[in-house]
Amino acid sequence: MFKQVLFFILPFLLLINFSIFAQHRAEKLYEESNTCFDNSDYDCVVIKLEEILSSSEHDAFSEDFILKVYQKITESYYQLGDFQNTLKYVEKSLSLTSGDYKPFYYAEAKKVKAHVLWRKGENVASINEILESIKSFEHLHDTSKIIESSNILAGIYVSIADYKEAENIYEKMLQIALERNDSAKIAENYEYKGIVKFFDGKFDSAIYYYDESLKINQKLQKPIESSINFANIGEAYFKMNNYVQASNYLLKAIELQKEYSFNSGLIFSLFTLGNVYTNQNEYDSGQYYYDQSIELMYETGETRELQLVYMLKSENFAKRGDFESAYLAYKTHTQLKDSIFNLEKDRHLNEIRVQYNLERKENENLLLKLQNEEKALEVEAKQRLINYQFVFGGFILIFLIVSVVLAIKLNRAKHTLTVANKSKDKLFGIIAHDLKGPIKNIDTMLKLLKNEKEESMKSEYFKYLDQTVHNLIDLTNQLLSWTFSNKGDFNFNIKNLDLKSISKDTVGLFEYELSSKNISVDNSIPEEIKVLADENALLTIFRNILSNAIKFTKNGGNINLTAEPKDGSVQIIISDSGIGMSANAIEKALQGKHVNSSSGTANEKGSGLGFSIIIEFVKKLNGSLDIKSDPNTGTKVMLQLPKVK
After folding, report:
1. pLDDT at residue 100 is higher than 70
2. What is the DSSP secondary structure assignment for residue 59, as one 8-state letter?
3. pTM of the model as a whole
4. When comparing pLDDT for 135 and 387, which is higher?
5. Residue of 625, 638, 496 lying closest to 564 (CA atoms)
6. pLDDT in tens, 88-98
7. How far is CA 355 from CA 23, 349, 640, in A?
8. What is the pLDDT of residues 135-180, one digit of tens each?
9. Distance of alpha carbon 328 from alpha carbon 331, whole angstroms
10. Which residues cross the membrane (predicted)?
11. What is the separation of C-alpha 466 from the centre of its chain, rounded to a whole number of angstroms?
């Protein structure tokens, strides 16, 4: 009899235990997503929240928790410029809420939906949604959210050139923010007041308000908001024909917006910079930035300004005398303008406001009826679940020990898998990081070969190409061999290594980059010095340090490699005559944190992965690392490793 009861109850207990574990994991992922959100890493937020929603157990999570997830993921997709997924999760939120049921989440979803519709140029639909949002937030007495929604409403007025009404709203919201001493909202409304001044032709006043907003956002460390300030200041200087200042501010905006994937702002910054270059008769540069902006619009679906950019392209072609291209661009502009904008709808905004309350009440009554029916079914289902819990409550106590043992085993398996996954992720990161340079060199040399006419130069390029391919094959075999030898955590094979040979092999991998930038390398490491280390790890350390040195050393510079015994270890020094590192970057690098990658002296790109790999491997090799840097003399990386006794 006992075995029969056990056979019947055990699956139920396991199901309950698994549900508890799934809820705990979901809450942990949500907390991690908040950290990503605070760091403006919206891709990270989306990955973690999508994992929650794709869980087979997500239907068992509480409704409030699911709504929190929907709210966070919609805002993240919006910041990434992915309006399709933004609207997808907005509609999911609205399906669980109404004006009277979960009013905060309802109002927040309406606000985001209004913002997206406005960005897409659908002013009429947008104003309907934002009025509903404002009304709900007023009912909740949520002043901060009232300001946010009201600012969107004012933005719609700006879109239809009703600047007086827009400025009245912005000023009212600014005063509320000042009374509350809400720095973020103060900065936001300074920015909006600047926008109104800009459209009113008062560019000096616009720059003043933009700059006030920028000061607050930089103090609050809000990079996306700061990038918007930079872009708007650049546009104002452009209108004042100050092209140098305009370019400076717009380039700052573009750098931040690319770093944080703020595509909505990036679209605007790109075509505005294109306009700056066009007005300086730099037509190719102008067309380049127009095309970048158009490509991003099609990618994100934010096509509100698409017809404007085609008009700017047409003007650019006409100024340079290419009238056929100018005509085609203008034709596209006209077609887009007719299809995107419906001016007649905008003229009826006031009529929509009058009709709004009546239509809302009718829809609300229907929605409440459907929700009441759904809630009744939910209550009945929950009551049945409670009855089952009472029946099986006694058995849960009996099998609690079994559940605990299973949970412990599951946790151990999870830990083992996590360690293995982290190690493999690092290995793949190293492979991608180290192979990127040689592959880029091959691509560059193939392009040069394609366009080169002189046979002597072709021969030189073939020589470089042949050497680079051989280096790439050797490096690939080495990395793959290393990868397959690690079945979990990193397993280092410590042995005596010839430091001179390691350094020569590493320098050979960068022969093309050194030649193209005319950088001389002085390898003064003595032949007899040996160290105790893992060969693959040491090669990886040397590759990353030398790659950074080349990246930030100007044409004609030099790199020096030296080594000497010191207190039972070997001190290796790799110094360059480059542009140096900031104190903040050095601090992050030495702590093994991710360093935001910046462009090199020849506009080389990086991943920011290198130093985190170096620090981890140096620690595993029982070594130490220090960095000294000066903008005038360059950077010196000092590595200490155990010496062969």
Report:
1. yes
2. G
3. 0.43
4. 135
5. 638
6. 998 988 888 87
7. 45, 10, 76
8. 888 888 888 888 888 888 888 888 787 888 888 888 888 898 899 8
9. 5
10. 388-408
11. 37
For β-strands 520-523 and 558-566, DSSP reports them as parallel
Q: How far apart are CA 430 and CA 452, in angstroms?
A: 34
What pLDDT, on a 0 to 100 scale, did the predictor assign at position 283? 92
Helix (H, G, I), strand (E, B) or coil at 328: helix
**Whole-number average pLDDT of the chain:** 80
Give 341's DSSP letter.
-
CA atoms within 13 A on the CB side of 253: 28
**Residue 601 dihedral angles phi and psi, to the nearest 5°:** -70, -20
Q: Which of 280, 193, 185, 269 shows the shortest CA–CA distance to 234?
A: 269
Amino acid 141 reads H
Model confidence at 481, in pLDDT bands (50, 70, 90)? very low
pLDDT, tens digit, for every residue of 40-79?
Answer: 888 899 898 888 888 766 677 788 888 888 888 988 888 8
- DSSP conformational letter for 260: T
> Highest-confidence range of 88-92, 153-157, 253-257, 382-386, by mean pLDDT?
253-257
Q: Is 107 in a helix, a strand, or coil?
A: helix
Q: Per-residue pLDDT for 261 more than 60?
A: yes
**Helix locations, 452-601, DSSP H:** 455-484, 499-509, 511-516, 535-551, 583-590
Strand-pair category, 624-630 with 530-534: unpaired
630 sits in which H/E element: strand 624-630
Q: What's the CA gap between 137 and 129, in Å, rounded? A: 13
How far apart, in whole angstroms, are the C-alpha atoms of residue 48 and residue 33? 6
What is the spatial distance between Cα 109 and Cα 395, in angstroms, rounded to a whole number? 43
| Percentage of the residues of the chain whose pLDDT score is greater than 70 | 73
User: What is the model's pLDDT at position 373?
Assistant: 64
Q: What is the torsion angle, in degrees rounded to the nearest 10, for the CA atoms of residue 367, residue 372, residue 375 and residue 380?
A: -150
Q: What are the φ and ψ backbone dihedral angles of 17, each rounded to 5 degrees?
A: -65, -40
Counted residue by residue, the chain has a size of 645
Spatial distance between the Cα atoms of 539 and 482, rounded to a whole number of angstroms: 12
Taking Cα atoms as reference points, which of 628, 639, 416 lies closest to residue 544? 639
pLDDT value, residue 583: 86
> Can you give 196-245 as a three-state secondary structure string?
HHHHCCCHHHHHHHHHHHHHHHHHCCCHHHHHHHHHHHHHHHHHCCCHHH
DSSP string, 113-157: HHHHHHHTT-HHHHHHHHHHHHHHHHHHT-HHHHHHHHHHHHHHH
Measure CA of the first residue to CA of the last residue in the chain; give whole Å.
71
**Three-state DSSP class for 100?**
coil
pLDDT of residue 18: 47
Q: 3-state DSSP helix/strand/coil percent for the chain, to nearest 5?
A: 75, 5, 20
Q: Which long-range contacts (CB under 8 A, 24 or more apart) does 194-203 make?
A: 194/232, 194/236, 195/158, 195/232, 196/158, 196/163, 196/166, 196/167, 196/170, 198/232, 198/235, 198/236, 198/239, 199/158, 199/161, 199/163, 200/163, 203/236, 203/237, 203/239, 203/240
Cα distances (angstroms) measured from residue 216 to each of 235, 269, 564, 588: 20, 21, 50, 25
What mean pLDDT do residues 23-48 have?
86
Who contacts 88 (Cβ-Cβ below 8 Å, separation ≥6)?
none
Q: Which residue has the higher pLDDT, 572 or 419?
A: 572
